[in-house]
Amino acid sequence: FVTGMKRCCCRAAPLLALLGIARGRPVGSMRGGGGTSFLSNMCRLRGGQHGAAAGETQIFETVVSSEVTRVATSPFEGQKPGTSGLRKKTSVFLQPGYLENFIQSLFDSLPDGELRGATLVVSGDGRYGNAAAVQIICKMAAAHGVARVWVGRDGLLSTPAASCVIREREGGVACGGVILSASHNPGGPDADFGIKYNVRNGGPALESLTEEVYERSTQIREYAIVAGLPDVDLSLEGRHVFVDEKGGAPHFEVEVIDPTEDYVALMASLFDFDALRSLLRRPDMSLVFDGMHGVAGPYARAIFGALGVADEALLNCIPSEDFGGGHPDPNLTYAAALAKLMGLTGQPAGGEPPVLGAAADGDADRNMIVGRRFFVTPSDSLAVIAAHAHALPWLARQGGLRALARSMPTSGAVDRVAEELGLPLFETPTGWKYFGNLMDSHLLGGADLSPLLCGEESFGTGSSHIREKDGLWAVLCWASILAHHNVDTPEGQLVGVEEVVTQHWRRFGRNFYTRYDYENVDAAAAEEIVERLRAMGSSFRGAGYGPSEPQLLQDGFALATIDEFSYRDPVDSSTTSQQGVRLLFADGSRIVLRLSGTGSVGATVRIYIERYQPPGDEYALLANATDALRPLVDLALHLSQVRELTGREAPTVIT
Fold first, then answer.
1. Which residue would you say has higher pLDDT here, 143 or 399?
2. pLDDT beyond 80 at 483
């Protein structure tokens, strides 16, 4: 790429033109913050500019030394990645050298020669500090022999789009990507920041790599950086080329790309946009999407705008470094405005609620689906999409699904679909990286399990089209399902979200399900809750109880098993243990308790409660979920002693 000084950047231009999407539209400007470390104000690009004909990439050439500076440093405590990378308070990342230490530890942990001459993706969700962190990482990438870095305009790429760019752009030449996001956590100087690494397949790094990163972070003594490299103007799409002398061969370049181009092209190849336009043109059909001030906004405007959705139906779709002062987590607590608009908390002003409502989180990998006065649990959403695989064009073209997977805490609703369709079902620990291994099984000597559909109860749904969960993809799945059900329905008789889910329950039964989140709990108190249940399990087994002789508890619940979930990966045979305490009952009900690894401080205690109702009893199937689960919720609170041990009278969030 360094010899061809101009490359056409319109690989998807004909397709995007058909969608009515103009290239080069601003996504939303992110400004660098203050401070003396990685959040110092962004300098403007210095150097010359080559003119470019229409449809070609502009080239900005800068003469600058490639000299590498080695900076002495010492370890920071606690740089141990969790379920989705390293997440800490922004103020922690603001410490001089903190970001640099972690990136150096990451680069040192990659295979020898992996970075030399490579293309690396570096971008994030636009939260406070995102753009300035991109600049630092680019300079460190140059010091480690990376030839080219792809950065989304303004430093923006959603997590699903980053996976797409790694896998799809120029045939998948990128060696991996550094993604700057704390996902659904708040942003701002007093909130959260995060960073994770996705490998060549576009998916999150496995524990073997993240463990090595942590070990190296405890021993680090210096980091390498091309300190003289000027900051790149991330608002200017094009190739920002750095040379030792004018006209010389580039020693490094940063290519600022359209953040939506590759992802929108992929979605257009997966879904029937003409069918979706026809659905959305119906007078009795309406859609509203809440971007929650995150990076999903530009993608929603590009896709839904091309499908004919009016701008006023695309809420909070301009990215903000503090997510508009809100918490970008798409659930009924933090997406309360959408819940009200959809009629879930009373009659909204202005008449009937929309037919389909949806929201995405800060980095656009999570989603919430709601119908008119009807909430779809993430577990039901996964099951309904699986049962409608035949209605999703790209799955039909590939001969249908080959496998289904869910995280252990996710309800067993999708299990019923797998059983009826005769598909293998995999139960994994929480973390998308486990699904990635299944998707790439055929590359590692195992069975070909793709197309694979998978999901987590924490509002994450996806498939093998990329190696991340994908919020907008899930919304397009639901729009496609509604289009399938309404091909021939007369105007005024549109089949909506509630009708689709109710039909599903009548066929497969219903898994009543709820999750109680206790956020920012004292870590010692959280561990005490887990230890209490472990001790209960030991006593349970010691007394001779088990599946053949369950222990009778309050309200008639018969406890058959207490264990801790562990997972042996069927692809690489790795083992992951202590993934949550499970209380399994003789009637198929269960209580699960685990500590979440996605927060930045303290601990989040999550309690999952599930009860299965077989099909056949219409009254029982359509019962209020709160009423149906109340006895099991009371039992869970009693057994865990979460109120007593945390001092919390109520959970932070109920899903």
1. 143
2. yes
Mark 462-475 as b/e (b = at least 16 C-beta within 10 Å): bbbbbbbbbbbbbb
Mean predicted confidence (pLDDT) in 307-329: 96
Q: Count the helix, strand and coil residues of the chain and give each as a percent rounded to the nearest 5.
A: 35, 25, 45
pLDDT in tens, 148-159: 999 999 999 999
- Residue 190 confidence class, pLDDT cut points 50, 70, 90: very high
For residue 95, the one-letter residue type is Q
The rounded distance, in Å, linking the Cα atoms of 137 and 230 is 12
Q: Output the pLDDT for position 57.
A: 84
User: What phi and psi values does residue 613 have, to the nearest 5 degrees?
Assistant: -115, 115
User: Shortest CA distance to 437 belongs to which of 450, 424, 418, 425?
Assistant: 450
> SS3 for 506?
helix
The set of residues, in sequence order, having a beta carbon less than 8 Å from that of 432 and lying 6+ positions away, is 84, 203, 204, 456, 460, 462, 467, 468, 469
Q: How far apart are CA 171 and CA 173, in angstroms?
A: 6
Cis ω before 451 (30° cut-off from 0): yes
Residues across the chain: 655
| Beta strand 222-225 pairing with 69-72 | antiparallel
Confidence of residue 578 (pLDDT cuts 50, 70, 90): confident
> For residues 358 and 459, is the Cβ–Cβ distance under 8 A?
no
pLDDT at 234 over 50: yes
For the annotated catalytic residues, the residue numbers are: 183
Q: What is the pTM of this model?
A: 0.87
- What DSSP character marks residue 25? -
Sign of CA dihedral 421, 422, 424, 430: positive
Contact between 381 and 401 (Cβ < 8 Å): no
Burial of 502 (0-12, 13-18, 19+ CB in 10 A): middle
pLDDT confidence band for 597 (50 / 70 / 90): low
What CA–CA distance (Å, rounded) separates 626 from 365? 28
3-state secondary structure (DSSP) of residue 305: helix
Q: What is the pLDDT of residue 498?
A: 98
Please tell me the distance from the alpha carbon of residue 298 to that of residue 301, in angstroms, as a whole number. Answer: 5
Q: Cα separation of 470 and 446, whole Å? A: 25
Q: What angle do CA 342, 348, 353 make, to 5 degrees?
A: 40
Tokens read off for 98: 């903190």
- The pLDDT confidence band at residue 5, using thresholds 50, 70 and 90, is very low
